[in-house]
Task: structure prediction
Amino acid sequence: MNLDVVGEPGPTGVTGEADVWVENWGAQAMCRMEDPDVLFVQGAAQKRVKAVCGGCPVRTECLADALDNRTEFGIWGGMTERERRALLRRRPTVTSWRTLLRTARQAYERGPRRASA
Result:
């Protein structure tokens, strides 16, 4: 049993894959094998680092952690410090990015619901 993964019952009461949130996301991050200095770059070099985030299985968890902790430097969850600051300014009422992003991901993974005829 992986204690680093948290699941909550979905609408049917069954814990589903869409309800998974990785607590110890750093151990699964694509960038864990990168030189840390590579992750804290400026300018055009940020695009290469952001590309590493593109296929990361814990990108959402990483971004939520950076936003909740107001991490100032580096690429986190595929966003630069400038992008994160802009997002925080646009959504000043968000008290938990973890909750917001987890809920959004769950809704996305469930897909659109069709109206009953």
Notes: The chain has four helices and two strands.
